[in-house]
Amino acid sequence: MTLDYLPQELLARISNVADFARVLVLDKWACNADGRQAVYVRKTPRSGDTVRPSSTRATASMPANGLSLTIRYEGCTRTILYMGCDRMDAFEPALTRAEEMDADTIFRCATTFQKNGNEGDRDGLTRLVEAIYRRRSIIRRLISEVRRSSRNPFPHWRDSGRVSTCPT
Q: Domain segments of the chain: what residues?
């Protein structure tokens, strides 16, 4: 069964809910302006399998959104998906990997996405990679800004008492 919307009570049973934090790192890094979309898939038990309906878990798949490197960000407003995000460590290891990624690796990743329609625009691809490379240093600050926004999706955030290492 595939769904594009789950009621609040079923969101808690998503098997890969931590992936929403990792995708937020990517969304903030790429300055994605679309609201986060997800498709939920629940595997149907094979005949003869004994499965209690309450134990069946859905898996979320998060497709690429089309509005990157823009100003506005909607994000995912369903706070239950970020209940485990109580400090910056919740975004690891994706956060550190993004911050440490070199331009060549970003370029190789970007060329795999380029096959979706912009194959001849080498200059555009280079500008995109340069912008993504520069934004690596501000991802933590951008996540903090989401946390301090009126839509704070991290209801259980606790300050660590440590001085932030986010660049300003």
A: 2-148
